[in-house]
Design the sequence.
């Protein structure tokens, strides 16, 4: 489990600077790739962080929870109160929860999470090599 926790958490945390560069560096990406590429990386980061925090969960369960988290954060954009609007106007607010609701973002999130589940199932990310975590520590 320790090995899986480290691998999944590392992938999730590694997606953060990639996603930030995607959104904020002047890469000259076409609008479609700029918008949805960032959404895909954000959802992938959610999946891998959850997989790292809950390494004993099967990938499909991680994917379902990640999908609920991603859709809930997107749905939060429909809720408007003063303090939340102020937060949305900050860099942290833009990065963490975004500003405008889009059903297409939810589609992008679910596709990205589906790919992450598939990669996890096929590759067995961080799966034990037969040596127990206790013996590796």
Sequence:
């Amino acid at each position: 489990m320790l090995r899986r926790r480290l691998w999944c958490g590392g992938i999730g945390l590694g997606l953060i600077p990639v996603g930030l560069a995607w959104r904020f560096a002047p890469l000259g990406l076409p609008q479609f790739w700029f918008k949805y590429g960032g959404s895909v990386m954000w959802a992938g980061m959610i999946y891998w962080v959850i997989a790292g925090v809950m390494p004993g969960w099967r990938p499909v369960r991680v994917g379902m929870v990640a999908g609920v988290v991603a859709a809930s954060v997107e749905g939060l954009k429909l809720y408007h109160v003063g303090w939340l609007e102020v937060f949305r106007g900050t860099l942290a607010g833009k990065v963490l929860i975004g500003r405008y609701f889009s059903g297409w973002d939810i589609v992008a999130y679910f596709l990205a999470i589906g790919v992450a589940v598939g990669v996890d199932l096929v590759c067995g990310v961080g799966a034990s090599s037969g040596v127990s975590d206790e013996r590796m520590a």
User: Anything to note?
Assistant: The chain has one domain: 2-136. The chain is about 75% helix and 0% strand. The radius of gyration is 16 Å.
